[in-house]
Amino acid sequence: MTDSLLDSLRAAVPDLRLKTDAGDLEHYGRDWTRRWTPNPLAIALPGSVEEVQAVMRWAAQRQVRVVPSGGRTGLSGGAVAADGELVMSLERMNKALAFDRVDRTLTVQAGMPLEAVHNAAREHGLEYPVDFAARGSCSIGGNIATNAGGIRVIRYGNTREWIAGLKVVTAQGELLDLNRALVKNSSGYDLRQLMIGSEGTLGIVVEATLRLADPPPPTNVMLLALTSFEGLMEVFAAFRERLRLEAFEFFTDIALRHVLAHGAVKPFDEVYPYYVVTEFAVGDQDSEAAAMAAFEACMEAGWVADGVISQSDAQAQQLWRLREGITESLAPYVPYKNDVSVRISQMPAFLEQTQALLGQAYPHFEVVWFGHIGDGNLHINVLKPEQMAQADFVRDCEQVTKLLAQALKAHGGSISAEHGIGLVKKPYLDSTRGPAEIALMRGIRKALDPQGLLNPGKLFDP
Ligand code: 2HG
Ligand code: ZN
């Protein structure tokens, strides 16, 4: 059955590169969640837009389900192929296609790694400003499919802000050329924006025209040690009032312990319960004085107990590693991840409620808090005790997520700030979206993919 299906694919797309070895099926069938056993039909590695279209035409004819695949660094199971789907990996389509100095845009193939996009933009003296720790492995197509956020959202916004145009292959194999990099285009529905964040359920992103920004100003990185959680949002306000913030990130002593065990450099002799890494523009005397003033105001108020400011690029990187290294340092514990958001103004009340809730609900598990506090986005990672079976651990955690979802609903928040719904957060979509909204989302999916072939089972069940 599998063989005859693949023979028909080879006949339909003769030059298509296909992988079917057990090792490849495992590698391409999973993402960073590691919760599902990969079981794809095969891996298609198209080398052109035409090949992506031809594969989709074949899939539509044969009713074969397809999982679009980028760097598979996602944390919500959005790129998992566990049920005989064909994985469509865009990794061979990884080149920059065009730069336009007047438009200040860079057109790239979807499989280009984010870091390569950064480098390509810098070669032209400009910046693609969306950034996060998985930059070396994730792909721009995957970033677009999840509307990726990261560590500079506070200054530059999410991926959505930087997509001037998109080429997308539909479930029927048609090619859509969306917005064509226009700055102004008031001609009806913006399907480009609809595709961004649709997690591969509405179409396959094959090319993107990215907007580029001015190079960032010179910056300094400061690490702050905080005495209490209550002071966190006050510290944020004190720094944001006085400085042009490029990033404002938070983590706890438990997170620090794990990154230090992974080789990061210890910042202070003493241990404090909470830490902030913030990066801000400098370059004139005023901004340096403003940074000191913010720091001193927070010390005087008793929110901040200690601090260090980077004196070199190497030290700035060292400080960033304390925050960016957290996910990797926790990976061996197969964490249960929450990626929640509320409006920044709701953050203090939400933090208070959530801390009390999780403190009670997770007495036996180690819970690691960190995240993009300046965007109202918290990552709460629950670590699996070594001897516990993963299924039991996930079941216990899901009970708590139900309560967390209720708290989010009450605060008008979201069950996924930036990782996407995928398979992991599907049961909780209705805490963030109303019934009428979900019904419309399903209708949109039906209109674009009537056979339900693209990334089935992600976001919602068929
Ligand atoms: C980050 O902010 C990523 O470092 C990963 O979004 C978060 O591992 C996580 O939960
Ligand atoms: Zn994050």
TrEMBL record:
Its cofactor is FAD. Belongs to the FAD-binding oxidoreductase/transferase type 4 family. It comes from Pseudoxanthomonas winnipegensis. Keywords: FAD, Flavoprotein, Oxidoreductase. InterPro entries: FAD-bd_oxidored_4_C (IPR004113), FAD-bd_PCMH (IPR016166), FAD-bd_PCMH-like_sf (IPR036318), FAD-bd_PCMH_sub1 (IPR016167), FAD-bd_PCMH_sub2 (IPR016169), FAD-linked_Oxase-like_C (IPR016164), FAD-oxidored/transferase_4 (IPR051264), Oxid_FAD_bind_N (IPR006094). This is FAD-binding oxidoreductase. The keyword Flavoprotein applies. PROSITE patterns: FAD_PCMH. Residues 36-215 form the FAD-binding PCMH-type domain. The keyword Oxidoreductase applies.
